[in-house]
Amino acid sequence: MLSLLLTAGSGCKDSSQSQGVGWQPNVPFGTLPPGFDSFPERWNKQINDRLAREEAAKQKEIRELRDKFFKEEDSKVREKLQSKLIADEAALSVIHRRQTEGDYIKFKTPADIPQDLKWEDGLDNPEIGDPNAKKGGVLRQWAPGSYPDTFRPNGPNSNSGFRGPLYDEIIIGLVSIHPVTGKIIPGIAHKWAESPDRRTVYFELDPDARYTDGAKVKAIDLLVNMYIRTSEYSRDVFYNNFFYQNASNITIYDDSRFSITLPFAKPLLPYYCTLFIPSPPHFYCEFGPNYVERYQWRIPPTTGAYVVKPDGIIRGRQVTLQRVPDWWAKDKKFTKYMYNVDQIVYNFIAEPSKAIELFRIGELDVLNITKPELWHERMEIPEVHNGYINRSTFYTIYPRPPYGVFLNTSKAPFNDLNVRRGFQHALNIQNIIDITFRGDYQRLNSYNSGFGKFTNPYIKARPYSPEQARAYFARAGYTIPCPDGILRKPDGTRLTAAITFPNSSPSLASTLGKLKEDARKCGLEIQLDPLDSTVAFRKIMEKRAQASFMAWGFTPPHPMNEQGFHSRYAYDERGGLITYTNNICAYADKEMDKLLDAETNAATEDELQKATWKVQQKIDDEALWVPCWTTEFIRLGYWRWVKWPNSATTQFCHPVVFDPMESYLYWVDNDIKKETMEAKREGKTFEEVDTVYDQYRYMDSIESLDNKDGGGKLPSVPVIPESGDPLEPSATEK
């Protein structure tokens, strides 16, 4: 054990003069961060003390419930008290079990690994992508919104929209879920085994696994990541609760073998262990009190296929990801046809019309054209009609982002449930869908739409109704109309609320403006608060916004709502508002906490379904969020040199993806690019390509693919022939 810990931080020189992307630590691989040597002991004490406090609090709560139960004569009340007692006693038993299991972090030897484990490697699943994919080329795309505030993977402002391309979409975790079969496949761990009680998973790291700087991934790196994220220096309160709630032990056996134990059994247990990810220890050799500032623009090496180099940055305008030529997973079964292009260039362009024009002239290679105005109007252009730009509509099976208006319950008037419910009735969402979006979109209902059987089908969004809105507002005391029609209380308080949103989309401002006008008919004054996307995000995360239009990105396979609605992410022990957590509604409710705990701790999918339906119902009952709109598909425009899979296992893209660009299955064919540019100069054209991939349209989950006995085969769909040779110019063109 000591050999793993006592090399921390020695010999790390201060290189703080180099703060940017090009910074490299001048210490050997494996050098541990300052302060790490005492981290396991400190963490174990912190967890043990917390368990002791929770044990005492739970025992007191049980005693008080028992006293109430025996004194209560009403049978219905006694039944409710008994139900709470059963739940509390079950929670206490979990605390006791964790206490008897010992320290959270342990170090043992390989001899301590059980010998009767059944190891799995997931290699019986089909390949992902197309064997015809070509490596090389450059793909240029638009990054909507503002340049990020930081490149740090954690700490203040790190949860921006660009962290996906920079980290979340490309990092290879311990394992992942096959996007067609729904089964576990290897990541940086090449094999794993579950304990009989389905709480512990034993992992062995792939001996080839490396960071983008060439350093070997080791088991201790999981603890390094945990140390960085839970440190007070990171100013990120989320992760202390996250690791405490979602795991009860991590044991290191040697450099490549370790085990992770969760508090409860889980479906797809190995996947839930991916809450632990590795961090290269040497990169954090300057970790300390000024971490947030010092590492503001430093990008750590990852296990992914891409790296950002100093020459790949144009501050405020552009970030280029460059593929690592000798990437460790380039020949692995499930990644060899992914991450094909040499460079991905993200261009931060504030004005959408400029991005559209750059795409039209070929300065951008691909563009999301899902918005009806783009699809029906802006893409009716010669470049599309002449076959230079292709269009595709792809139906996905993926959790729908909860686009809507989040209501901050710590701010008036949304600290009143009646106002929140009235606000929902005051927004004419269906009119926006029918008119502005031309019926292409659908109304969201449940907060967790798109999770298949885990989506509560009985929840329906509250419809626009001035009568019902005014009735709820009256219950909140807003009964007197002002001369301009806005309601007020007898004390003069007007019914007004501001919606904060990013100003990167003019169409969003116009849409919210229409909602504002219809809300006036309900006696509600909406003030629009458009801000630069980075500024808007900061205001929302600091919980200064009354209401905010936004959406979180959800991932399959199961809903996980704790981060967004648990009280531990709203207020601290002294009642102070906690900023920079995903509970942007600042919502705190003991009943909701218990429902969320049940969702988090569900041991089977049946338990999870029941628990998450209740959570979704509670979100709806409390009117914490106004559900707006969603789509079942993504529409892409792309120059014909951008190619997509057309194989037996992957038709255009796998279905479990929000945006096909996030699959990294595409590639750039430079020969076709040369052919296209020559044809364009000579006035030659190609067939117009407008393809609909709807093989997944009526499926709501991976299970719908019915692959359990089919070895991962896709539904039967015809292979789309590639576009052929250029057509000769017409007589008029000549």
Brief description of this entry?
Residues 183-561 form the Solute-binding protein family domain. With 734 residues, the chain is α+β, with helices and mostly antiparallel strands.
Can you characterise this structure?
This is Extracellular solute-binding protein family 5. This protein is α+β, with helices and mostly antiparallel strands. It folds into four domains: 270 residues, Periplasmic binding protein-like II (D-Maltodextrin-Binding Protein, domain 2, 3-Layer(aba) Sandwich); 65 residues; 143 residues, no CATH class; 227 residues, Roll (Dipeptide-binding Protein, domain 3). Helices cover 29% and strands 15% of the residues. It has 20 helices and 27 strands. A hairpin with a 3-residue loop joins β10 and β11. The termini are far apart.
Largest sheet: 5 strands, mixed
Radius of gyration: 27 Å
Into which percent range does the helicity of residues fall? 25-40%
Q: How many domains would you count in the coordinates?
A: 4
Strand order of the largest sheet: 1-7-8-6-5
Q: What is the 3D form? A: globular
CATH fold group of the largest domain: D-Maltodextrin-Binding Protein, domain 2
CATH architecture of the largest domain: 3-Layer(aba) Sandwich
Distance between the termini: 78 Å
Q: Average pLDDT, to the nearest integer?
A: 90
Relative strand content = 5-15%
The named CATH superfamily of the largest domain: Periplasmic binding protein-like II
What tags apply to this protein structure?
734 residues, alpha+beta, D-Maltodextrin-Binding Protein, domain 2, 4 domains, five-stranded mixed β-sheet, 20 helices, 27 strands, disordered N terminus, disordered C terminus, signal, SBP_5_dom, peptide transmembrane transporter activity
